[in-house]
Amino acid sequence: MTMGLLSLRVMATTRLLRLLRFEVWLVIALSMSAASLATTDSMSTSAFSDTMMSTTLSSQSTVINDFESASSIPFTTFQTEANQSQGVGSSDGVGRDGKIPIYLGGFFTLGGNWDGSGILPVVEMALEHVNNRPDLLADYELRMVWNDTQCDAGLGTKILFDQIFREPQKLMILGPACSTATQAVAGTAHYWNLVTMSYAAASSILSNRNKYPLFYRTYMPDSMYNPARVRLIKEYGWTRVATIHENHELFSLAIDNLLTLLRQANITIITSESFSENPRNQVENLKNQDAKIILANMYENMARRVFCEAYKQGLTGEGFVWFMIGWYSDGWYQVPDPDVTCTISQMKEAVEGSYYIATESLQLSPSKEAGITGLTAETYTKEIRQRLDSPRYANLNYTFNNLAPFGYDATWAVALMFNRSVEVLKNMTFKDGVPRRLENFTYEDKEMAQLFFRLLNETEFTGITGPVSFKSGDRVGITQIEQLQQGCTNDQFQIESVCLTLNTDIETWSVASSACSQLGDRTLFTPSLDAIEDLIDIVSEDGMTNTKWYIGLYVDSDGQFNDVSDSLNQSELQALTDSWSSSLTSGCMVIDLDQADEDGNLLIVDCNQTYPFICSQPTIFLEQRLGLYDTAGDVLDWNSRGIFWPGTGEPPLDSTPEVIIVIKEIYEGIDTYLYIILCIFACIGILFAVFFLAFNIKFRNQK
């Protein structure tokens, strides 16, 4: 069954359901949903336990699924309190400290085609922060009942029905993450007067107010990146480009908008290619059209296929510029993929050698000042990483997600809107004359839904992702310009070609060394003299009180220096040994970064003493932020990193230079004056010849 037919059936069904009794139309709706989902391969093997989580993750109680009789696909419903634990909470209408609980319906993606598991802990963290603020929702406790949509539209619709017809009453929908599931949920939820706030859906079709009248998002739609792309193309003087995209509504709409902007900017589109599975013919056409500047829109699994084919046909590396989507996962091109015929090393050569440029929504605000949330980007990153490592989440395999900050800001946008609604409702007159509070919202209350919608449109604040505001439901934000370059993650510091992690846990040297190794390709850091000064600056700017840190040097029983990081060669280690005191004893090295001594101090201590430690690893290829583009003001602000151009270091041309050989015949004669002189002598010679000829004829008989 096609998605269009499914959408029509769902729309028609939802209209009918509102007119029928609950028991009857619920069975009808889910029967149709189950029949549609039966054709979906990804759902045919899905099996979810119908479990409602209790106050802690380790304690669960099983309940009967209301839909189990109408569908063969059970799923899990979780209810979260914002009180340092995830659980069902009480359903007696009383929250913490006598507050009234109000609920959001949460839609997350823990599996399927995309792993968004790291967003859930961030939203739970935001709920805790909101509920701990005495100046927000003073009489209420904001809670959430959430489900895993698996990035599936059919399952998302089924979950929506479950959210609606199960207690407690939901005031809004938070999510889903994927555009396909969001289209299904947002296209149906408005019939129950539920405003939907997505934190990651990027499809441009969701901007259609006729189809999605109560939809908001904190993540910018993909079409909003196009002005930044066009600005970059104009910035480097390119006048001819090509596009290639996956045949998917999400990308097709964005490319259509891009083509319009390119034509308006008088930029020639030499070809616009699209594909469904195998991009070989389309990449070959790019080559035949001499495409050098290529703009691509597709999911990362398809991007692997495109880059593999481009590598085979010589369209990667020096001389080519690829514009990609910026929300791919780190190392996306190194994921083993049976549909990709290139090796991992070939994919690394193709992608890393191209240094592609990417655009996406600003993920973390560069500002050092905290907004209304009380967090800066740096403090947010530290807190969420600590949470992911905590016992509460450690065994759930939730992964750090770069889009999670949009979930945090989405939660705050909803909370701020509700907080303002409390005061507005006190003075609002409803058609039935009955005053209302937040807890009085029902799915038949169109007036309150319109109030929520209007107040969200007026909500403005500074969040983790920068300034947050909305225009017709879409996020008004800033586009982040990125490039695949060697660098470090957001929670690391880069010194030269090394990424440093400052671990404030107090450990012995051996434990510290093991802890670094457990983090992957990392060891204790051994700094050079220049790096010591940089370390002093890092510790100072970060506000750390620790001055002594374990590093990767130790002295063995023979009095010789050893380096676990292998950053010093044998001659350097021997020089260090020779320069040290003759009474050198075994022990481990700490570096004293006392700011009063800019040269730093290397101290040998007992290895069983405990200190914080510094882990290091080589820089890796990551999408590094180069600048920010403000669409509203057409302002492009570069940072100090700058774009790296492989090869010559200069921006490549947008076409292969043509070599034209022109043969021009030029007559080169003698000098004019010389010619005249020679002519005179020639004439004189002729005259002499005529004279002597006549003389010989006249006197020919004389001897």
From TrEMBL:
Main location: membrane
One Gene Ontology term of the molecular function aspect: G protein-coupled GABA receptor activity
GO biological process terms held by the UniProt record: gamma-aminobutyric acid signaling pathway
Entry annotated with the keyword Transport: no
CDD domains associated with the record: CLECT, PBP1_GABAb_receptor
Domain named Receptor ligand binding region: residues: 120-485
Entry-linked InterPro entries: ANF_lig-bd_rcpt (IPR001828), C-type_lectin-like/link_sf (IPR016186), CTDL_fold (IPR016187), GPCR3_GABA-B (IPR002455), Peripla_BP_I (IPR028082)
Topological type in the membrane: Multi-pass membrane protein
Domain of life: Eukaryota
Keywords of this entry: Cell membrane, Coiled coil, Disulfide bond, G-protein coupled receptor, Glycoprotein, Membrane, Phosphoprotein, Postsynaptic cell membrane, Receptor, Signal, Synapse, Transducer, Transmembrane, Transmembrane helix
A GO cellular-component term linked to this record: postsynaptic membrane
Subcellular location: Postsynaptic cell membrane
Residue ranges crossing the lipid bilayer per the database entry: 673-695
One Pfam family matching this protein: ANF_receptor
Gene3D superfamilies, alphabetized: 3.40.50.2300, Mannose-Binding Protein A, subunit A
Record-stated family: Belongs to the G-protein coupled receptor 3 family. GABA-B receptor subfamily.
Listed name of the protein: Receptor ligand binding region domain-containing protein
Source organism of the structure: Strongylocentrotus purpuratus
High-level lineage: Eukaryota, Metazoa, Echinodermata, Eleutherozoa, Echinozoa
